[in-house]
Structures are given as C-alpha cells and as structure tokens.
Design a protein that fits this description.
- The chain has an 8-stranded mixed β-sheet, with helices on both faces.
- By secondary structure, it is α/β, with parallel strands linked by helices.
- Helix 3 packs across helix 4 and helix 8 runs parallel beside helix 10.
- The radius of gyration is 17 Å and the shape is globular.
- It has 11 helices and 8 strands.
- The two termini are 20 Å apart.
Length: 264
C-alpha cells in the first residue's frame, strides 16, 4: 500500500546535520536540492510545510566560532544570527523556483495556549491559501525551555497534527531505524516498516546523534509516535539525497515507514 499516493499536505523536517558541513557552514548544494524537491511537490498540488533546524549551527559558522556555545545566552545569540542567515538562503533558493515562503517561530506556549494555537492554525491556513510555503523553527532566541530541552523532531510532529497533515518526513543523517547501531554493528539491518511503536522499537534508538544536532534517533521515533497516533504516516530517512523523497510518492521503499494508527 502506498501511504503517500493521496498525500495533499506534508510536513518535512530537516536537521542541522543535514543542512551543514562539519565546519558548521551551510551545505548549499544539499539545501538547493531540498528546496527543488519541495517546490516540485508544491507544484504538484501538495501543501508543503518545512520545519527546519540549523539556526544555532549556522549562527556558529556565521560568527566564526570554533564550537557551539555551551551557555544558553550564547546559543540564543547564535540562533538570532543563524536564523537571519537561514531565512535569507531559503528565500533566495525558493524564489528561484517562483515560490513564496513565510517564517513562523514557535514556542511551546504557542501550542499550549488555546487562543495562540488557534491564531497559528489560522496563519497556516492563510499561508496555504496564498500559495506560500511555511518555514517553521523553534523561537530559540526567547524560549529558554525549548533551547535546553526541546527539539525540532517533536516540533515537526506537533505541527503535523496542528495543520492536519497527511504525512511527516524527517530527514536526518542516517538511513532510518536499524535493528542495532549500524556504526557499531555491521550486521545491523534497516527496518523498512514499523507497524506500531512499542518498548521494543524504542529500545533500538540508542543515544544522541551528531554533535551539531540536538536530538538522536529517540527524538525522531518519539516524534513518529506522536504523529502516527494522530493518523499521520511518518518516514525517517537520510537527508543526504533529498530527491529520494520522490520514491515515497512512487510507492517505493525508502527509509523507515511508521504506519499511521487507526483511530477507533
């Protein structure tokens, strides 16, 4: 069964490790490919929302820092610089394909407060009506709680629920969920489909990911759990070749597909 055959609204989350090089500088070639695919999906009639990490990482590179600041104010300051740079580049790339973008910086309070959540929903609806592509990030410059504890994997699932998306795709630096850590176990096998996320699946997630990101496989699978419980098909896949997203719409296997749970 092709769970992407009738997708009309999709959320794509891209992580810092996918957007940047080890130097902290932006991977422009990969960003350009990602934007090309998202614009093409939008052209086909799919409403696309991009949840992007990378503000702190890009800010670190822009400021010429040797590493990510360890203190919260330092990370917040880097985020303010990086967010400007990120949106400048996104606007440049999306404009090349004739597409408009809109920036939404979200905090936990925006979701938990009923009035602010409804305002968000209305904003998303209008952006889709205007044919613009929403680009979402946490508001790292003011949300101390999120910058310390949060991650954009969770945010992507929350956004997918908020806008009633049909699918969520999480792009990362690994091919999907494996039976063991592929960096440590050569016999580790990619798990193509997960029917239900239980304790056994969660036990496969291991520790945090790259030093440039904030999460690891556990945050991605938790996000998939949030989304699938809301009936949203979710895929975790390697973001090094964004054009592989086409495989999903063609009904071909790519990454790990987490099946949506049916609500009784």
């Amino acid at each position: 069964m092709n769970h992407f055959a009738n997708v009309k609204k999709i959320v794509v989350k891209v992580g810092t490790s996918t957007l940047t090089y080890e130097t902290g500088k932006t991977n422009l070639r990969r960003m350009a490919k990602l934007v090309s695919v998202l614009c093409d999906l939008q052209n086909s009639g799919v409403d696309v929302t991009l949840v992007t990490s990378g503000a702190i990482g890009v800010g670190v590179g822009k400021l010429g820092l040797s590493e990510k600041p360890k203190d919260t104010p330092g990370r917040q300051a880097a985020a303010t610089v990086g967010q400007c740079e990120l949106m400048f580049m996104y606007d440049k790339f999306f404009s090349e394909y004739g597409h408009k973008i809109g920036q939404l910086l979200i905090t936990k309070a925006d979701i938990e407060n009923e009035e602010r959540r409804r305002n968000l929903e209305n904003t998303f609806e209008k952006l889709f009506h205007f044919g613009a592509i929403p680009i979402v990030n946490e508001n790292d410059s003011v949300a101390v709680e999120e910058i310390v504890y949060g991650d954009n994997d969770s945010l992507s699932a929350i956004v997918a629920k908020l806008i009633h998306a049909d699918a969520l795709v999480i792009l990362t630096d690994i091919d999907g969920l494996f039976s063991a850590n592929p960096k440590e176990d050569e016999s580790a096998q990619l798990i193509p489909v997960v029917r239900k996320i239980d304790d056994e699946i969660l036990s496969l997630c291991g520790a945090a990911g790259s030093k440039r990101g904030t999460g690891g496989m556990i945050t991605k699978v938790r996000a998939a759990q949030t989304a699938t419980e809301a009936g949203i098909a979710t895929v975790i896949m390697n973001g090094s070749a964004p054009q592989d997203m086409y495989k999903l719409f063609d009904g071909r296997q790519c990454g790990t597909l987490f099946l949506p749970q049916k609500n009784d």
